[in-house]
Amino acid sequence: MNADPVSASAAPSAPDFASLHVAVLAGGPGSERAVSLNTAKGVVNALTGRVASVSLVDVTGPDFVLPAGTNLAFNAIHGTFGEDGDLQAELERRGIRYTGAREASSRLAFDKIASKARFRTAGVRTPVEWVLRADEASAESVTFPCVVKPPREGSSVGVHILQTPEGWDAAVADASKYGADLLVEEFVAGKELTVGIVGDLALPVIHIQPRSGFYDISNKYPWMTGQGGTDYFCPADLSAEVTQAVQAESLRAHRALGVEVYSRVDVLLRESDSLPFVLEVNTIPGMTESSLLPKAAAAIGMDYASLCLKIIELSLNSD
């Protein structure tokens, strides 16, 4: 078992936190709105008393209003108009500095089809996929077992694991609610893992073990759905060799997409040979105090408030 992070860069210069007027952008118009509001409340609490001022701004679209004097936006919006590059473009248009990935890398990472193509170019291991139009999708064009998902959603919204063609039509109908294209991936049997990346630091690996089924929205957020649940093991009970391989593959995926500041990389560790397969890179991962990125940071002694301040520091230094 190996809890050591992988690191490859010197620390940037610290900003003057006492001069920062931070607006924490929350909510958004997408399917992950409730999760985002929870994230934002945690960030506001963490920054209160550590920066000049902090306020929560509920965002539902591009016409949001920032408090007077805001000189940094802390992006806590998951999914649509937060993680997809549109919010980043709007903030850049207004000349407001912000945390996290910039517009181009956000758009690339949010699109699972485009990001998987980039993974392949960079030699990052990822499951075999089929890209289908929802109105033409046929079970005969894929191999089972497989995973059907919308390519531009998060929190496992619209995701279905199919062992056989039975259930194909229902899965396609659900996933197609979120767009005209479908991403279908080969099913990789094994452990669900995730790796937080902060700067050039790969944090300890977390093993995600749903108590039933797979890691869908109910198992991710039982407080929101009233059902499900998941056990988390950090650091994951893996050999030093496998741990380092998972961290290295996650860092390669993060860099392949050009993601700035921080992310969380979702990985499947194949049961048959312990090879890691990257599923996606989340550029605005959950940041409630019980979320996975804070759990991994805590495993190396970085508390929640320190993590929020580190994100700000790295963001300001990446401008």
What is the level 1 CATH name of the largest domain? Alpha Beta
Q: Specify Rg, calculated over alpha carbons.
A: 19 Å
Separate helix tally: 10
Classify the fold: give the CATH topology of the largest domain: D-amino Acid Aminotransferase, Chain A, domain 1
Residues in helix, %: 25-40%
* Major sheet characteristics: 6 strands, antiparallel
Number of domains: 3
Could you describe the 3D structure shown?
The two termini are 37 Å apart. It is built from 10 helices and 13 strands. The strands form 3 sheets. Strands 8, 9, 10, 11, 12 and 13 form a 6-stranded antiparallel beta sheet that branches. The chain is globular and about 60 Å long. The mean pLDDT is 91. Strand 8 and strand 9 (201-202) form a beta hairpin. The chain is of the alpha+beta class. The chain has helices spanning 33-47, 86-94, 103-110, 112-122, 168-175, 217-220, 222-225, 240-256, 292-298, 304-317; strands at residues 21-27, 53-59, 72-75, 129-133, 146-149, 160-162, 181-186, 190-198, 201-202, 206-210, 230-233, 262-270, 276-282. It has 3 domains: 17-108, Rossmann fold, CATH 3.40.50.20; 113-125 and 189-317, ATP-grasp fold, B domain (D-amino Acid Aminotransferase, Chain A, domain 1, 2-Layer Sandwich); 129-186, ATP-grasp fold, A domain (Dna Ligase, domain 1, 2-Layer Sandwich), CATH 3.30.1490.20.
